[in-house]
Amino acid sequence: MKYSLRIKLAVILFVIVAGAILGNWFINMVFQEKYYISMKENDLIDFYTLMCRTINEGERVDEKSRMEMVSVCEEDSITILVVDSGLEVKFYSGYSIMNDSLIERLKNILFYQNTDFGELIAHTENYVMSRIFDEESGHNYLEMYGNLDSGDIFVMRTSIDSIKAALGVTNQFTAYVGGMVIAISLICVLMLSIGITARIEKLAHISTEMSKLNFNIKYHDERKDEISMLGSNLNVLSERLEATISELKTANNELQKDIQKKEEIDEMRKEFLSNVSHELKTPIAIIQGYAEGLKESVNDDEQSRDFYCDVIIDEALKMNRMVQKLLTLNHLEFGTNTVDMERFDLITVIDYVLNRARVLIEERNAHVIFNNKKQVFVWADEFQIEEVITNYISNALNHLNGEKIIKIDVEEKDDIVRCTVFNTGENIPESDIDKIWEKFYKVDKARTREYGGSGIGLSIVKAILAAMNRECGVKNVQNGVEFWFEVEKCIENANI
Q: 49: number of CA atoms within 13 Å, CB side?
């Protein structure tokens, strides 16, 4: 990858390590010799101070002080010669051959036979410090000579050739070690960068999956560092994001349902207005026509006027029943109607509805068969179940034909009770069987108009059962049609 973090991290760490090693090597090459000479200068000055404090005028150096100065000279590789005004040796340190050369050097300085100070470093009232080359020994020295506070004369040297050899070895060794360190560092840097970037790449992969709304992938790492903490936080973020998206989807689903319900309500409202207008148009036109006829005295005889009035009253009653049913259905569909669940005997309700409809049954010459006499207790809204049974029986009477038999049966199953109402007559066309529960839908409009039906009764049945979370239906059978509905069975039926 062109912009791989692994490569960038490896290069940066390698450059830092290699730069540090090469920088150290370069600094050694350029500044280490100067630093060494500076340290030797300080050693000479410090030893000069020690001599001024230790060697007194006219006195010999005691053994303890001598040993202390000798120790310092040996530690700092200093060769020294101190003489009094009569050139008698007062203190020395170093090899005798060197002392001889120092004596010669001191004589040359004192009697001005050699005024070559070499590279002058410091020139004070009491001493001169310079960097010289001794042709006799072929070595470079850092030299100091002058007078002590006691008046004694001194000259001391320390070799600086050894530093060059040491620097050469040190720099060569540094180069070898640096090369090995760089190689090892390169391997370590690659391993480190791979270890770090592999975990970061895993986090990047997780974030990519999260962007695709895949929240199953999680980060797992037992280490307790910042990357693991980031992974843990990413896991928490994934869970919270998943929960939030789930809530949003749920809310969106509910919103879609609300929008759909609103659209359905708007459609129902339009359909309602259209159907009501259509259903009321005919009775209103009839009432208007017969009322105008009465006003204009189309027929003067009392019998004709009574007939006109009866028609107007009958149409007004039909309109009133239809409006009442529409109001009932409206309450059911919009959930404003309260369902009062109570325990009651379904057989008693069916007997009551049949007794109330006895006049209509006799008028239609119907033969009603209802043999269930054992009590069957159910849980439901008694008033609304009575309305359901009334609509089923009315529907059966209105569509009765052939042998004119109406059969009612109550069957107990597990935890429900199914009530069926059968009537002989023509089957419902299969194309219409699912539509009969819709408001104002009429399979045979002429026949429905004949008995004054509005096409609302079955819609009310469907809405009542839906409000109680129960089922209802219809099926074509031999010689007729069978409507059914179910209610919850009361457990006490088992003991009755």
A: 6
Q: At what angle do helices 161-211 and 226-295 cross, to 10 degrees?
A: 20
Segment 124-140 mean pLDDT: 81
The structure tokens listed for 274 are 């259209």
Location of structure tokens 């040796």: 89
DSSP 81: E
User: What mean pLDDT value characterizes the chain?
Assistant: 78
- pLDDT, position 111: 64
Point out the least confidently predicted range of 73-82, 137-146, 191-200. Answer: 191-200
| CA–CA dist 395, 425 (Å, integer) | 12
φ, ψ of residue 167 in degrees (nearest 5): -65, -40
pTM for this entry: 0.42
**Minimal CA–CA distance to 375: which of 347, 410, 413?**
347
d(CA 24, CA 161): 22
For position 446, what pLDDT does the model report? 44
Residue 462 is inside which H or E element, if any?
helix 457-467
Closest by CA to 80, choosing from 146, 14, 4, is 146
* Tokens encoding 66: 């001598």
Contact (CB, 8 A) for 381 and 339: yes
